[in-house]
Amino acid sequence: MRDNYALDAELYDIVYADYQDDLEFYVQEATAVGGPCLELGCGSGRVLLPVARAGVKVTGLDVSKPMLARARRKVAALPDDLRANVTLGEGDMRSFKLDEQFALVYIPFRAFLHLMQVPDQITTLGNIHRHLRPGGRLALNFFDPSLEYIVAHSGPIGGALHTTGETFVDPRTEHLLVEWATIHYTEHLQRIDQYFVYDEVDQRGRVVGRLYRNLQLRYIFRWEFEHLLARCGFELVALYGTFDRQPFMQAGQELIWLAQKRGN
Ligand SMILES: C[S@@+](CC[C@H](N)C(=O)[O-])C[C@H]1O[C@@H](n2cnc3c(N)ncnc32)[C@H](O)[C@@H]1O
After folding, report:
1. pTM score
2. Residue 82 — very low, low, confident or very high, per pLDDT cuts 50/70/90?
3. Closest residue (by CA) to atom 24 of ligand 1?
4. What's the total number of domains in the chain?
5. CA dihedral 242, 217, 220, 103 (to 10 degrees)
6. Are 107 and 160 in a shared domain?
7. Within this chain, do residues 85 and 71 fall inside the same structural domain, yes or no?
8. Is any ligand 1 atom within 6 A of the Cβ of residue 92?
9. What is d(CA 146, CA 221) in angstroms, rounded to the nearest whole number?
10. Which of 105, 112, 152, 203 makes the best surface tag, with the fewest CB within 10 Å?
């Protein structure tokens, strides 16, 4: 599997430094079960750190070495008692094997969409099932695919490079990063290929560099995932459309899933 995050894990932290919409939700889920919790695709620890700071025992797995290296540095800065609760490791959500069963497995920020084939999705859900205690919970979120957006971005013109309106300051240089993006949907594969380009602009307004980040995702429709959950031994507990737990009510909201392990 290619590492979408190898190019610049540091850039990931710059771009998502202020993104906090989901933190309270995942911390609440983790504290409700009290641990032990497992985060799949923990990345650089954006969600894992707040869960650990809440005093919950948590294990984080990721396939990306650079992302894990950043998570390790952040965990190292935690007070001793909290740090002792955290385990980090390299692991693919499809194939990891741990000698532990968890009360909660969670997959924030759409990481499940990195599974590009249906067999990957089924293998992952089966693997999660095996690593959950009886009655254990699964929490994850991803976007509800917008048909309008897919149609607009399926042809050659749809993929045109455009500014996203987002800018960031690179703390390493104080340079401005101006974000551009190109996105292309391949409908029959439910595949998204996305490139982000960051123009690095110095204090005198000169473009002094360009950074690239690319992503491949497989989008999933609402009912498709309900069937996947049922097929893989999960019972749906709730489907929210917002992180403050309003029910999923309209197309285009986030799909925020809470499910429970059925049987063993
Ligand atoms: C969008 S980031 C989310 C990181 C972190 N959970 C957060 O919320 O900021 C997705 C993460 O999933 C990881 N990932 C992708 N495919 C994976 C797989 N098959 N198994 C484990 N991690 C994977 C990526 O390396 C990346 O760190």
Report:
1. 0.95
2. very high
3. 41
4. 2
5. -60
6. no
7. yes
8. yes
9. 9
10. 203
CA distances from 64 to 1, 91, 191 (A): 10, 9, 21
Measured between alpha carbons, how far is residue 234 from residues 56, 120, 133, 140, 226 in Å? 24, 17, 12, 13, 9
Closest CA to 43 of 81, 10, 79: 10
Query: What pLDDT, in 10s, does the model give residues 30-77?
Result: 999 999 999 999 999 999 999 999 999 999 999 999 999 999 999 999
Do 213 and 227 share a domain, yes or no?
A: no
State the residue range of the domain holding 73. Answer: 9-144+221-261
Q: Is the CB of 109 under 6 A from ligand 1?
A: yes
If you take atom 23 of ligand 1, which residue's CA is the nearest one?
A: 41
Tokens of 230: 């049922």
Query: Rounded to an integer, what distance in angstroms lies between the CA atom of residue 131 and that of residue 134?
Result: 10
Say if residue 109 is in the same domain as residue 158: no
Amino acid at 152: A
pLDDT in tens, 139-178: 999 999 998 888 888 776 667 889 999 999 999 899 999 9
Rounded CA separation 38/64 (Å):
16
Q: What is the CA(70)–ligand 1 centre distance, in A?
A: 13
How many whole angstroms separate alpha carbon 84 and alpha carbon 45?
15
Closest to 1 measured CA to CA, from 120, 128, 84, 110: 120
